[in-house]
Amino acid sequence: MPEQHGGNADTVLRLVDFTDFGDTPAEFRTTPANCTLSYALPAGAVVTAVTAASPDGTDPAPQPVPQPVPHTVPHTVTGGTVSVPPTVARYSVVTITAG
Description:
Blueprint: E1 3-5, E2 8-16, E3 33-34, E4 37-40, E5 47-53, E6 63-64, E7 76-78, E8 81-84, E9 87-88, E10 91-98
């Protein structure tokens, strides 16, 4: 359920990469995984921001995920669906704000 903030609603998606977890004990390691997540927006909603945060990077604070510009990881809105292509090492939180 989206969290309401004024006229905007936040949808928070938590992504966990369990790629390197196995059935036998081993040294912990991670392999970053590329993925694409798509979220169907509520009728009439307009995306106002997309942020991504992860404790895996050098700065765990939420960072904006901009519209397509060179050398960034963009989000796109097509029809009523927003798509975000994050890379997840262990854990990431993507927040989609729509109003």
